[in-house]
Amino acid sequence: MNKLSKSDLAAIIKKTALRLGFDLVRITSAEEFSKDRRYALDRLHKGYLNGLPWYTTSRVERGTNPQQLLPGARSIICLGLNYFEPSHSSIDSSHLVGTGRIANYAQGKDYHRLIKKRMRSLVVEMSSILGEEVGARWYVDDGPMLDRAAANRSGLGWFGKNTNILSPGVGSWTFLGQIVTNLNLEIDMPLKKSCGTCIECIKSCPTGAIVAPYVLDNTKCISFHTIENRGPIPREIRPQMRDWIFGCDICQEVCPVNKIAPGTTVPEFQMSRLANVSLISILQLDEDGFKRDFSGTPIMRAKLSGLKRNACIALGNNKDLTGVPELARCLAEESELVRGHAAWALGQIGGANATKILEEVRFTETAGWVLEEINLSLNEIANNTE
User: Fold this and answer.
1) pTM higher than 0.90 for the full model?
2) Which of 10, 230, 301, 368 is deepest in the core (most CB within 10 A)?
3) Residues designated as active site
4) Which domains does the chain have, with CATH numbers?
5) Rounded to a whole number, what is the distance in angstroms from the first to the last CA of the chain?
């Protein structure tokens, strides 16, 4: 085995990671994340993570103890990759009626495979340099590892009040990855930075999901509802979603640290065809069309029924009359999930045509909650015309 000091080995790893295309690289120890464990369990017990059945106590316990992830772990290599594409952002741009907004990160190719390929290459190169196989496990927000806790402790960035990691010069437009390894590496110190008195993200969140500095209630978050929620979206959340149909960037767009973020250099993240997606076109998709248009992107996670549900809400919030015929078809032909939100959207758009459609379907609808949505929409239209 090639004998290198902790500092020399860490320097080689950082240089190699940057050459492989990562924008940020820092190293922390494999000690337990005791403070972050308490914080995560507190959020879990308060119900802030309701709707994420896979986020369990045992997952938190495992994810905050690197030894459970890799026996003999000694260090964690924390990596960051800038995904920000200015043409994908709604900052300083007027949005087009009839189209839906997709979070900046989701408009490119799915990042998991791309980042893991680079992480694997980093481990292979280190094994070659050292002359023996390096023990390692790597994660890109798809395992129990608390990625932001590791990023914060390594000095890759600091916690913003919206709970995202803010990195100097890049902001929060960053994918995070971690390699848990048995290598004994020189560690970096946490940054002595904070958001100070700034509360722009808290003030700007339309649903009040940031219930306190550094505390996010997922059950109020637009990103959670448009991506992870598999059922009906609460009525009180729907108007606040505006035209977001997958994710939400509001708390990032208003963050002063993000104002100077450079654009990504990764071609796979620079795609622009999803910047303005037709809501009516989404409602017209079948499964084959959904796969054709979105395969290989994060949007697949919402599933077709979820994306159509979200598109119905956006049409209702836009009060887009051109969407009425397609909403009527959805109300007659689509899944229960889509029908209920199509009924809500027609109630928001209002008018004689919407009333007629809702009246007709009221006598054929069999799902109880969809029928309730129809009746509530009819009442809302009636109240607005008095």
Assistant:
1) yes
2) 10
3) 141
4) 6-94+104-181 (3.40.109), 200-262+271-385 (1.25.10)
5) 83
